[in-house]
Design goal:
This protein is mainly beta. It has a single domain, classed as TonB-dependent receptor, beta-barrel domain (Maltoporin, Chain A), CATH 2.40.170. Helix content is 9%, strand content 55%. It has twelve helices and 45 strands. The strands form seven sheets. It has a 22-stranded antiparallel beta barrel. A five-stranded mixed β-sheet has the order 1-6-7-4-5. A four-stranded mixed β-sheet has the order 27-28-32-31, with no helix packed on it. The longest helix has 23 residues. The N terminus is likely disordered. Keywords: Cell outer membrane, Membrane, Receptor, Signal, TonB box. This is TonB-dependent receptor. Belongs to the TonB-dependent receptor family.
Amino acid sequence: MNRLTSTTSATALLASAMMSVGAASAQDAPAVPEVGDEIVVRGVFVPDEKRATAEIASVLDAEDFTRAGDSDVAAAIARVAGISVVDGKFPVARGLNERYQSATVNGVPLPSPEPLRRAVPLDIVPTRILDGSLTQKTYSPEFSAEFGGAAIDLRTAAVPDENFLILSASGSYDTVTSLDDGFFYNGSDTDVFGYDDGLRDLPSIVEQEVLAGRNFLTPEAAASFDNVDTLVITEEETPLNGSVSATLGGLLVDNADLQIGNVTYVGYSDEFQTREGVQDRSFLQNGVFNTTSEQARLDYLETRQEVAFNLFSTTGVEFGGGDHSIKSTSFLLRNSLKRARAGDRVDQQEFGDAELREEFTEFVERQVWQTQLAGEHLFPDLGDIGVSWRVAYGEAERDAPYERNTLRRRAQLSDIIPSTDPADDREIFAYQNSLSGNSIRFSSLEDTNFYSGLDFELPLYLGDREVTLKAGTAYTDNSRDTSLRVFRVQQGPNAVGGLGELAALRTDLLYQDEIFETGLLQIISATNRLLPDTTEASLEVNAVYGLADIELNDFLRVSVGGRFEDSTQQTATFESENVSPAADEIVSLEESYFLPAATVTWNPVGNLQVRAGVSKTITRPQFRELAGTEFLDPNLDVPLLGNPFLVNSEIFNVDARAEWYFSRGEFATLGVFFKDIDNPIERVATTRESGVTTFVNSPSAELYGAEFEFEKRYDLARFGDFWADQEMIFVYNYTYTDSSVGVDGDVIRPVQSDGTIRPDIQEAEDLLVDGHTLEGQSDHLINLQVGLENIDTGTTLTALLNYASNRTILIGTAQQNGTDRVVEDVPVLVDLVYRKPFELKGTEFVLGAKVQNILGQEFDTFREDNNGDLLPFISFDRGRMFSVSLSAEF
């Protein structure tokens, strides 16, 4: 377990940072003019972006991405104060999980390929295609009403100033994976490119029999499944990781009246990770683990291969002396996961004392593509009115065919074949009939998103004071379809006494056409017929907003406005053989909200800027959370039951922050925040016996915290000639967050009964622990960067630390006194990044080297019972990663 004493570390770093601020202010403060008239200069060091916005925000640019060596947005955004990342994909901002965040590209929302979330997984967005990112932590009416912790806008590269071509390649070595033995299976010939070539398609004869309502597949249908390339696991040496990319930019037209330019990026990566770990699902009884009679544990080794392919292109047109611009942006973000796992399993509830071998193979394709067209126009002859517009269409897909699970029991060959010669007797793994194993799953998801937006901005003057009026409208149409097919291999009607000697056969030899034809084995369509296997969902939002940004005097401004949203969210569930769902299977949430927001910005003295904001926002249930059917969480490997009785959450936000810019690019900030949430949506356990979890609206929650940021550059020339032209960069932020969920009220949880989902209304205190923290919240977050930079050569060496204290990832129940909650012991990540530009034969090169997870921290989630005993929920080793890269610009 990682046990970092965060309070001590935070205090020490905070004290060091504040002393540095004092020294910096003495050195960098501008001289006070000694003249008779008083001259007041304020805000000279405040960055333009921080001056232009009325909101509390954090900005990362391309230089920040490069210095930290982060290849995807998920890794980069974790460097921002108050932000941590769950599952390597989803941001948790100020203690609120991904449902409370929004992610946009150039202001346009993205579709999501995630089966359980509308949130976009940020690990699929490479930083290479971005010019920067803006993380806004206070709400303003221009943004979607679904806001809680942060609105993250990713900004793509602009029109280039000149023609260029950048070619890059990198390779990496993982100490627990690379060049060591791992598990693999054949799959299709095109898996190396992240695409299946059709091998894993669901056989058409099987689909026909499912749609016809047949539970027991015919021998012909059973024989149509692939039982070799998707099933047989082999042990082989794991290759090194590698990636290549190319970026091409050019000015197509460049004259006084018209500029047209394009930037195109294409990238490919192939990475492997072997995990040796444990998964334990032992039950709790009265808050104590029962590991003697109901143990459920899997010790496993698995190898994961992730292939990413990304394509990005943007074309910009500027005309009218720079008053008008139009930008077209298109991108394809694709990531595939190929996984093979084998392990020893104990499940005394179902199999008693039998020792089992479980094997699992999976191939998941995730893909997001979108096309955007946007324009910005300034009309000087019409009072400098500004008009901007955006329209976009995109689709996200997730396809997971042939997710295979096989179960075999440890036995002696002589137990299966009594006539075995004692000299030939040996230990084998024999076929094990099971209700939970020997399955084949096919799941798919398609998510489409159409978006349009129009904004107006009009600057006015009341006397000598500027007032900016803004208004706009937005429309979103988001729809999602999912389907699931589950099949199980089991002993057939002719295997009355078992399979006999056939049980000793290797699985791919056992699953032969001839054996299915004999009726010794059969395949059933095991998609849960008590619950639907197909969902259709949609969300349509019409929004208008207006705000006024008013300059009250030279040093005080107020931004006040509101957003009106009218939304209709529908989720329908049905069985695949039915043409359409019944009326009682359609969940509809129709809501209208007016959401006010106000922010005050004050420049009281020098380069000190103070902001305070108050707003009201909402968050809506995710599509799958409303679907009255059962599905599997692919990250935690737990079954989830949707709750069609969920309602929207409403959030009251209060924020304040003081920002001191003591030199250009150098600052210290201190902020506080508070949130009061009505009906927060939480994921909790439902019954001990089934292990199923579900979603409920808790009555209320409160969250508060504080953030501190500090960034400073130090000229090292004073320490001697060796340090001439060297700067040290020091970046530090710390966030404290606390939350408490109230149980004064009722909750509605779903209960399965006779093939339908009915509401079970109960007092919240009977299900939830009073005062528990929100899912995903860490009390302490620390980010630290210490770097050296040569101003002349551009060479940098940066050490980075990222720390988040323990966080709950699955809420515990009152029946178990909260001991059934699942906690993640977040690893302390320490990285080292080196970057050296150099020139060779007229070509600019950049050599990079990086060491990640220097401390060798493992991934660890656990449960703790009343006796203080810990059980690993999911735990595995993570290696240290050594990588090198080289890029050339022509």
